[in-house]
Amino acid sequence: MRGLIWLGLWLCSLTAPLAEEVSLQRYVVGVENIDYRPYHDGRNAGFEGFGRELLDAFAAAEGLAFDYQPLPVARLLPSLLDGRIDFKYPDDPHWQPQQRLGAVLHYSQPVVESLDGTLVPDGALGQPASRIQQLGTVVGFTPVAWLDALGEGRLMLRENADFTALIRQTLIGRVDAAYANVAVVQYQLRELGLDSAPTLRFDPQLPHLRGDYRLSTSRHPDILERFDRWMLDEAEQVFAIKARHGLPDTQIPADPAHPFP
Question: What burial letters (b/e) apply to 162-188, b meaning 16+ CB within 10 Å?
Answer without folding.
Answer: ebeebbebbbeeebbbbbbbbbbbbbb
